[in-house]
From TrEMBL:
SUPFAM superfamilies: SET domain. Its EC number is 2.1.1.359, 2.1.1.372. Signal peptide: none annotated. The lineage of its organism: Eukaryota, Metazoa, Chordata, Craniata, Vertebrata. Residues 20-351 form the SET domain. PANTHER family: HISTONE-LYSINE N-TRIMETHYLTRANSFERASE SMYD5, SET AND MYND DOMAIN-CONTAINING PROTEIN 5. Keywords: Cytoplasm, Metal-binding, Methyltransferase, S-adenosyl-L-methionine, Transferase, Zinc, Zinc-finger. Gene3D superfamilies: 1.10.220.160, 6.10.140.2220, SET domain. This is Protein-lysine N-trimethyltransferase SMYD5. It catalyses: L-lysyl-[protein] + 3 S-adenosyl-L-methionine = N(6),N(6),N(6)-trimethyl-L-lysyl-[protein] + 3 S-adenosyl-L-homocysteine + 3 H(+); L-lysyl(36)-[histone H3] + 3 S-adenosyl-L-methionine = N(6),N(6),N(6)-trimethyl-L-lysyl(36)-[histone H3] + 3 S-adenosyl-L-homocysteine + 3 H(+); L-lysyl(20)-[histone H4] + 3 S-adenosyl-L-methionine = N(6),N(6),N(6)-trimethyl-L-lysyl(20)-[histone H4] + 3 S-adenosyl-L-homocysteine + 3 H(+).
């Protein structure tokens, strides 16, 4: 059952404004739905800003000490701390530290399990939506807890670079478990693109590799032990779990947050003399070289999310729009890459922007632009 079109705009920052600018149309049985402009957009315009239904940090990313808010994925390290860790230079000092927008004094921990949030608002939002059903309490470090076993199994099957997370599926289940209107949330999740059985197998094979069938069976067993709910019994059957797995693999949008990149963007906006600009750019260039030498590709706090309106965008090899996360949290900004006319379909590339751009731009350029995935 498809969700009403009003629901497609419900998680946008300004739903009424967005619904007057774009519309979702059914194209055909092959492409399904698509997103179309109702007004003209200029290159660089923000088409909409949207938060996800659910999101989750990648498990390996968390294991490698990329600290992020458990709800909104905001990077929790200050730009300076982030730069020190990524560069391997413990006494590094960033100029213009006042440009860092991370505020450790506002960070909050779950009183039961101690997972961290960027603010009390995010802690409460997570508790209200899904965290009460997933909180491990004093068992947070217990490897024998069913959720810990599920996480460990996923990490053993899906090594970096990650493209999905079993915890995204877990939060879908937990959200429905906690919801008063369970049917409403089930309808929202049903809005995402689904696949035929053979396509679902291809997606599972891609995510899990040669042993995907046995691994998928193990994941389903652990998933059921940790999270089973009668209202969602179809998600726990072999066919339903494969479909859920495929839904996340097909529709999951990569999210990248970085306090360092946000600081670099703020530096770009400073009003400086030519000499000051040259000195600051030279510092950033050297910092990036140090980061690349020490850390390589692993620059961001990374995860994935399910975005209702963004999921209506079809792939284009010549996209006229792209997603980015400039607010250092899970808010997706869809921006025009070229002028878009009324009635024109809005298309994005499903390829990793880092991979697309690396042959044409310097790594420094990628850091400054930060349109991750």
């Amino acid at each position: 059952m498809a969700a009403p079109e009003d629901d497609m705009f419900s998680l946008c920052v300004d739903p009424t404004k967005v619904s007057s600018c774009v519309e979702v149309r059914f194209i055909d049985k092959i492409k399904g739905k698509g997103l179309f402009a109702k007004k003209a957009f200029k290159k660089g315009d923000t088409i909409f800003i949207e938060r996800p239904l659910v999101s989750a940090q990648f498990l390996w990313n968390s294991l490698y000490k990329y600290k992020a808010c458990e709800f909104c994925l905001r990077a929790l390290e200050t730009a300076e701390d982030n730069a020190r860790r990524l560069s391997g230079i413990p006494d590094l000092s960033l100029p213009h530290p006042e440009l860092c927008k991370v505020h450790p004094e506002l960070h909050q921990a779950c009183p039961q399990c101690q997972v961290m949030y960027c603010s009390d608002e995010c802690r409460q939002a997570a508790a209200d939506q899904y965290h009460r059903a997933l909180c491990l309490g004093s068992s947070q470090e217990d490897p024998n807890h069913p959720i810990s076993k599920l996480k460990d199994a996923w990490k053993s099957m899906h090594y970096p670079p990650e493209t999905s997370s079993i915890m995204l599926m877990a939060r879908m289940v937990a959200t429905v478990k906690q919801a008063q209107d369970k049917g409403h949330w089930q309808k929202l999740f049903s809005q995402f693109c689904s696949r035929a059985a053979n396509e679902e197998e291809e997606i599972a094979h891609k995510l899990l590799g040669e042993k995907f069938q046995g691994q998928l069976t193990l994941l389903r067993t652990l998933f059921t032990t940790a999270l089973y709910d009668d209202h969602l019994n179809r998600w726990f059957t072999p066919e339903g779990f494969r479909s859920l797995f495929s839904l996340v693999g097909t529709n999951g949008q990569g999210i990248g947050t970085s306090s360092l990149s946000q600081w670099v963007h703020a530096c770009d906006a400073l009003a400086l003399t030519s000499q000051q600009r040259e000195q600051l750019d030279s510092f950033i260039d050297q910092l990036y070289k140090d980061v690349e030498k020490e850390t390589g590709d692993f620059l961001n706090c990374e995860g994935s999310g399910l975005f209702l309106l963004q999921s209506a965008c079809n792939h284009s090899c010549i996209p006229n729009a792209a997603a980015s996360f400039p607010s250092n949290n899970f808010l997706l900004h869809l921006s025009a890459l070229s002028d878009i006319s009324p009635g024109e379909e809005i298309g994005i590339s499903y390829l990793d922007c880092c991979q697309r751009d690396r042959s044409r731009h310097s790594r420094h350029k990628i850091l400054r632009w930060m349109s991750w995935i």
